[in-house]
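Q: A reviewer asked whether we had any structural model of the full assembly, not just the individual parts. We don't, so I'm hoping you can provide one. Inputs are below.
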Amino acid sequence: MTETSTQIGTLDELYGVLAERSYEPLWTIKGALTPEPQTQMVPFLWPYDEVRDLILQAGGLISAEEADRRVLAFKNPGTGDHEIARTTDSLWAAIQLVMPGEVAPPHRHTAAALRYIIEGEGAYTVVDGQRVEMEAGDFIVTPNWTWHEHGHEGQGPMIWLDGLDLPMVHTLHLVFADFTGSAPAANGQSTEALSSGRLLPAWNGGQTPRTLVWKLADVEAAFAELASAPGSPYDDLILEYRDPTDAGNPLMPTLTAYMQMLRPGVETQPHRHTSSAVYHVVRGSGWSEINGEKFSWGPGDTFSLPVWAEHRHANPGNSDALLFSFSDRPAVESLGLLRES
Amino acid sequence: MTETSTQIGTLDELYGVLAERSYEPLWTIKGALTPEPQTQMVPFLWPYDEVRDLILQAGGLISAEEADRRVLAFKNPGTGDHEIARTTDSLWAAIQLVMPGEVAPPHRHTAAALRYIIEGEGAYTVVDGQRVEMEAGDFIVTPNWTWHEHGHEGQGPMIWLDGLDLPMVHTLHLVFADFTGSAPAANGQSTEALSSGRLLPAWNGGQTPRTLVWKLADVEAAFAELASAPGSPYDDLILEYRDPTDAGNPLMPTLTAYMQMLRPGVETQPHRHTSSAVYHVVRGSGWSEINGEKFSWGPGDTFSLPVWAEHRHANPGNSDALLFSFSDRPAVESLGLLRES
Amino acid sequence: MTETSTQIGTLDELYGVLAERSYEPLWTIKGALTPEPQTQMVPFLWPYDEVRDLILQAGGLISAEEADRRVLAFKNPGTGDHEIARTTDSLWAAIQLVMPGEVAPPHRHTAAALRYIIEGEGAYTVVDGQRVEMEAGDFIVTPNWTWHEHGHEGQGPMIWLDGLDLPMVHTLHLVFADFTGSAPAANGQSTEALSSGRLLPAWNGGQTPRTLVWKLADVEAAFAELASAPGSPYDDLILEYRDPTDAGNPLMPTLTAYMQMLRPGVETQPHRHTSSAVYHVVRGSGWSEINGEKFSWGPGDTFSLPVWAEHRHANPGNSDALLFSFSDRPAVESLGLLRES
Amino acid sequence: MTETSTQIGTLDELYGVLAERSYEPLWTIKGALTPEPQTQMVPFLWPYDEVRDLILQAGGLISAEEADRRVLAFKNPGTGDHEIARTTDSLWAAIQLVMPGEVAPPHRHTAAALRYIIEGEGAYTVVDGQRVEMEAGDFIVTPNWTWHEHGHEGQGPMIWLDGLDLPMVHTLHLVFADFTGSAPAANGQSTEALSSGRLLPAWNGGQTPRTLVWKLADVEAAFAELASAPGSPYDDLILEYRDPTDAGNPLMPTLTAYMQMLRPGVETQPHRHTSSAVYHVVRGSGWSEINGEKFSWGPGDTFSLPVWAEHRHANPGNSDALLFSFSDRPAVESLGLLRES
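A: Here is a predicted structure for the entire assembly that you could use as a starting point for your response.
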């Protein structure tokens, strides 16, 4: 007090006192108030031939105990030197290889996760005690703080895409993780008939288990029904994965996922939005133009869409193209920050 | 004014003036404020042998033009002479027979309807242009003001149970009906993959069609998953039909429906509630005690549960019993009038 | 069984058997499916001079013990001989007189109630232990199953309008009433600062008490703010009473209430809806045309608006007119039966 | 392809290839998955004597054109060298001085803001064209993307606390700002009677304007009503500011605010949660213990509560203490990341 009531003679002197006592004039925030979002993240494409080759070579080079290194993150080239790798500002995507006989022990964290199975069959995951078999084309969710583990009881390599909201949760300093606690025992029970949301146990405490897996065959059937629909001018036919037991809400509070079909000859209109996304090509080939740069893609390729980047898609070929994608749209929307143009 | 300011000398004189001028002292309402609900409706059972014989004989006695008379309502014996037939105060149930080649033209009304198919296959219904094939075990909804029609392109008699909220809608004087307007054309399209609520068209205006039909096989699968669940003390295993595209809400604003499994040897606890219901036996046999009276039932039988009637169920046999039922519970609940004891 | 399998020879014989065994062919319901709602209720107006004179004369003719007869219901002339008096099909309105020193003991019922205070001050009501002082212009709610009682500690007669959903609750056979149980003690506490909904106790179990009373002065202030608003073409300026602690929902599940201002010279457009209403004139004079019949009204008059009746209002004078009204709109809407044209 | 299919001989070689091609093994994320949240932010207290002296001295040193520098942010000492100043990871708080005759031109941004007025009267703010007068004790909100401006038409310095969610919005790369567009004209209209949420314009398009200002007198009245309530073991009496026109939701999607009263002699229990907060002392004195460190506070002091920091409060004196605080709890909760222990 005595000190601060000392008369300060110049602006420079004032700034010195402020810095020393943990104050800051308005400057910093003024610079932060940009007319539009600024990001270091760039659009980038990781070709599947390269991804697959590298993950398989990594599989051969590292020992069994190091099996959890058989995960390669798609690190956006805009990531800074001392920052956590991320694919967009809020999303982290990676390729994971699991070999027959391998097991990942149960753990959980506040980062929510999802998987899209690219190759193989015979592996399984257990989410909060509910066991789900995995095969190519499956889309599987592991919500925030659910126990999860996996293993591979089949033949041949199993490869999938992992998607997490970790950069967002980490940035908000809200990471909890548990690698040592006791997960509930796997019950081996399939509950998909119930979890379709069509039948609800009506007695007190009876609860429909939430949906964990969506099969590609169901997605294909839905596209078949919609074959003659007009679709979206920006995305052609696009389906959002939803939990029928909680139909009014997005899949998870921070993440949602889509499968979109670009019909032959389609070239969509450009648009942009304040959610970011990671795309993975399931089948077909085509191109996407992001902030003026054209990315040609084929089966297995993965590419990033930063926040507020203008983009459009095209399928110049003669057969359908399928793009899987996931996005932080639910978080952006619930914070009141979703915009599109 | 001049008249009314006349001095009235006695209570009798007052009552005369009041009656003449459309006033009434508090009496009437006082009598209406009973400690508990009063109803003329009684518990009653209509045996299927009788029902089936009468509807088939009716089918033979009436001409093709009168085919819409092949509907027999379950008229509660408590219904008054000049009142509309009803099964409980708010619910109307009936048996309907459709013969091969018959067609019912499209119509719609503000009374909501549901059907449970008892016998036959090869018939269809069209609800707001969406065609649904019907076979035994199906549960089908026709919400308020949806166009509906049906026909029978198969072999043999088709028999189903109809359930409507007509007594409630009629009592509230809110009936609209349209027998002459143009229904949307049947599009022959099945949309069940979409309407499971697992995949939602994500473009603007894309809407998941609502669920119209639930198959018995799915219900059986759900019961199989729940085989070792504790169940409800009042109802054993009981599943509510839900629309996965609108999972937070009951099936219709006025009606919901259940399938319950009474496992061998089960005898439930008595309870009562301010919703009324109609039960239909899908398979097995047993008994229900309603307000102290025991009703033995077997396959195809239908019985009524009036408002606030104490009831319990038992399956003394060696195999499962399945009871389908529908109820006005959503209406009672949304009006803030649901109670159980 | 044996009986029913007997061959029935004629339609007449069939009808006899059906009637005897509690079945009914489709006829009844067919008749019930009218193109538009049918009601016996008529538009009717009860002039306040007459109402006030009769209730005061009744006050003088009946003894203290019979004080609860100082309630005169507005009985719609369309009410049948053996039916409960009602003002519209779902609403019951009455005038109530309370003299200084009189007390009504606590009771509760599943019929929800509201009051609009017409004359006097110095009376109070206690709703579930929360005491509210009453004066002319107050609007007060007594939701379903809340304990309520009242007394008059002031001078001069106290006159108010009572509105209940009793005809609806009675028709649905869902009346419970309790005249003998123990009401919570009156706590004398005003909680209006909290119940404005602007400040919410944030600790576990802390709950904002629901709003019970709205003052005319606040209503007048709101109209002053809206003086230059365009208003509704059907109702001019109309405000719905809302509970700010539960702002997303109507006042009660079955009832809502409005105050509307007809500005000088206003003549509204006709419309109709499937909710019914009772209007009470707070100040000013004008006329309403209902189903083609014109009703001129002045301060204190009460009139009924049946279901689906076309109506419009006019204020040909030089000063504002205020109409209070209550309606079953929330019930009709939650049952999916609301329509307007 | 050709390159990547080259055999890679060692792990080091592999890591080189991965880095070059924008992949990263699982390491980074593993390190990010900490058992509990990690933050650089520390608890810190800025005393009001110092704050007030510095802002007034700053007011004298800078010219009129630089008036927007009369804002001093509370910069958490844990903030890194090249980072935007912040008070906690998600919240930014500052002290603002406005002198008579000064005006801040209209602007808007996706960062949401709130103000608590510490000293003075005669200033005003305009939020989306709605003008609100400001005096000490007022709490005022400026939601995401609303136009806002202010001016001072009174005497003497006006000092307030600003709270923004800017660090969160900036971190998510979702900042939009507009300093040049046209704000709606101030209409000079107070709409507080409507915005209490008790009266809702019922015509189509009529909308109750949202609540913008809460007066300290109303807060004091609410505390008076709750004087004998048990309160929270962690916070004693604590009230959350709510918008009665939207009572089911928090004040803003990212921010909420509280006023809490620590009654004389109170010492609360410790707890912690994944939301962070900034506290400002309105009156009284006491201490708060945060992560084991005790901070003594008096009127006008401001202190920070980082994420997941254990804390408790005490008022050892003989008169009430009032603490205003704001928090990112709504954001943390809607993302599914709220925890307390």
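A: Points you may want to mention in the reply: The first helix of chain A runs from residue 11 to 20. Chain A has one domain: 11-334.
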